[in-house]
Design goal:
single chain; mainly alpha; 4 strands; 65% helix
Length: 280
Amino acid sequence: MNNLKTVGLLAFMAALLGLIAISLGQSIWVGLGIAAVFNLGAYFFSDKLALASSRAKPVEEHELPQVYSIVRALATQTNMPMPRIYVIDSPQPNAFATGRSPNHAAVAVTSGILQIMTYEELQGVLAHELAHVRNRDILISSIAAMIGSAIAILARSALWFGGGRDRENPLGAVGALIALIVGPMAAVVIRMGISRAREYQADRTGAEITGQPMQLASALAKIGQATAQIPMNVDPAFSQLYIDNPLKALRGGSLLRMLSTHPPVEERIERLREMAYGPR
């Protein structure tokens, strides 16, 4: 269902782009072409950008033997190459994976997560992160970002240079105005929906890899409580990569749910419980 929801949301974004282009009397390919230039660069260098932004440092096996052992076993089990391992000096327990493909993957963990997780919980977290790589979530988010950027570019170009096929027609002008205002907002909401769907799917895939959904559920309970209390300085552009929103403590959880990059931890835990024990 998570994968179907992702496909549906991407299709809706593409349809929205087409409708906006028609309303504004512009070519879809203009917006997509400009957006592709910016977003393809970000896609190919996503791992370097995310790691640099988080000030993650590469570590060798003797520095984090437990993490290396878990990741190597999980990578072998899933027929994936061994990703690079990084550590982030932060007391907030969190982690993320990045890379456009399994051959270019990296996994980063905070020093905080290493202090509070049991071996089994850490295994659940790292399986979740490898699931993101296995499910090609960087590619999916890049496609969503490209379509969203194209919508924003078309709207801005119409704002500055004029748009609409028939400026004399009041209804056409209203349609163009709606496209200018509603289109970019709708694109943001859809992108956040895709991000939440990918988190649910990574939870499910990670739990299937370990065969122990409650390992990840226990880890998420600890992480969710800590991220709401311990701040972490993270570039908002990369916050969706983390297993839980690292900006939660700074924003006080006041954002609307539909604008959140992550599903509520409580719902994620409940889904994992259903995997383990069945519906209540």
